[in-house]
C-alpha cells in the first residue's frame, strides 16, 4: 500500500509547487507583492512541521473517532449518498469548530498562527499549528456517533482542508453567483482581514451557506488588511506555533497594571 501512496504524495506536492510558482510569477508581474521572502520561508517551515505532526497524531485521531464510532448503534453503509451526507456534515462541523476557535481562548491558542500571516498567498494556507490534531477530532465525535463511516469523516475533513488551500490567494476575484453557496477566495480574504468590518466573519470551509444562515457572512467591500490586529508577530516558526499558548497562559497586563480580558496578538477583540 505504501508503494501506491508514496508517488501520489510526490505528485500532489509537485502540483502545489507549480501553483505556488505560478502565483509568485503572477504577483511579480502584477506588482501585487503577495509574497515576502522571510514570511514565505516561515510558511514553508511551518508547513513542513505540520506534515511531520500528522504522522505523530494520525493514530490518536483514528483511535478517537474509532472509539466513538464503536459506541454508535447506527452503522451507515459505504455508498455515494452517505459520503455526500458525511461531507456536508463535516463541513457543518468545521464551521462551528472554526467559529469557536475565534471566540474561545484555548482554541484560539491553536488558531492564532494561521491569522498571523501578513500576506495572503497559497503558502499561507498551511500556516497551521503543529498540535491542532489534538483538538480537531474531538469536534467530529458527533459525526461518528451518528454512524457515519470513520474513513468517510477523515476523507471529508482532508478534502475540506485541501479545498481551502485554493482560497488563500488574491489572484482570483469575485465569482458571481458561486459566492452565495461556496466559500471563495474573496470570502476567505475577508476572513483573514483585520479590518473592523471583517473580524470574525466567513468561517465556512467549503460552503459559505453556514455563514449566511448564522449571521457571520461579510462580502469583500474594502481592501483587506491581513494579519493580527496587533500587526507583525514573527518569522520564527517555533514562536508562531507557540505564541498562542503563551498568550493563553500568560494574561496581558495593561499599562495601569490591570489584567486585560483580551490576549495580545488577537485577531478578534472578543477573544
Describe the fold and architecture.
- InterPro entries: Fatty_acid_hydroxylase, Sterol_desaturase/TMEM195.
- This is Fatty acid hydroxylase family protein.
- Keywords: Lipid metabolism, Membrane, Oxidoreductase, Transmembrane, Transmembrane helix.
- Its main location: membrane.
- This protein has 271 residues and is an all-alpha fold.
- The chain has one domain.
- The protein is built from 10 helices and no strands.
- It has helices at residues 2-30, 37-71, 80-103, 105-115, 136-139, 141-145, 150-165, 185-191, 209-213, 237-249.
- Helix 2 (37-71) crosses helix 10 (237-249) and helix 3 crosses helix 4 (105-115).
- The longest helix has 35 residues, at 37-71.
Protein topology:
Elements: H1 2-30, H2 37-71, H3 80-103, H4 105-115, H5 136-139, H6 141-145, H7 150-165, H8 185-191, H9 209-213, H10 237-249
Helix pairs in contact: 2-10, 3-4, 3-7, 4-10
Amino acid at each position: 500500500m505504501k508503494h501506491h501512496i508514496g508517488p501520489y504524495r510526490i505528485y500532489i506536492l509537485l502540483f502545489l509547487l507549480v501553483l505556488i510558482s505560478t502565483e509568485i510569477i503572477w504577483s511579480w508581474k502584477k506588482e501585487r507583492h503577495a509574497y515576502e521572502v522571510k514570511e514565505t520561508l516561515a510558511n514553508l517551515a511551518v508547513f513542513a512541521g505540520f506534515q511531520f505532526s500528522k504522522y505523530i497524531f494520525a493514530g490518536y485521531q483514528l483511535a478517537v473517532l474509532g472509539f466513538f464510532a464503536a459506541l454508535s448503534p447506527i452503522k451507515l453503509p459505504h455508498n455515494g449518498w452517505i459520503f455526500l451526507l458525511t461531507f456536508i456534515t463535516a463541513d457543518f462541523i468545521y464551521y462551528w469548530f472554526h467559529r469557536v476557535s475565534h471566540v474561545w481562548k484555548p482554541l484560539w491558542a491553536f488558531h492564532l498562527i494561521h491569522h498571523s500571516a501578513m500576506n495572503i498567498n497559497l503558502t499561507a494556507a498551511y500556516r497551521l499549528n503543529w498540535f491542532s490534531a489534538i483538538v480537531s477530532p474531538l469536534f467530529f465525535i458527533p459525526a461518528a456517533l451518528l454512524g457515519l463511516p470513520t474513513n468517510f469523516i477523515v476523507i471529508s475533513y482532508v478534502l475540506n482542508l485541501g479545498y481551502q488551500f485554493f482560497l488563500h490567494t488574491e489572484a482570483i476575484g469575485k465569482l458571481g453567483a458561486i459566492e452565495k453557496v461556496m466559500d471563495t477566495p474573496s470570502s476567505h480574504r475577508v476572513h483573514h482581514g483585520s479590518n473592523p468590518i471583517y473580524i470574525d466573519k466567513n468561517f465556512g470551509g467549503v460552503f459559505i451557506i453556514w455563514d449566511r444562515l448564522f449571521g457571520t457572512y461579510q462580502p469583500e467591500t474594502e481592501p483587506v488588511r491581513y494579519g493580527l490586529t496587533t500587526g507583525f508577530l514573527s518569522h520564527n516558526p517555533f514562536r508562531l506555533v507557540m505564541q498562542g499558548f503563551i498568550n493563553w497562559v500568560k494574561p496581558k497586563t495593561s499599562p495601569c497594571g490591570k489584567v486585560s480580558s483580551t490576549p495580545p496578538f488577537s485577531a478578534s477583540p472578543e477573544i
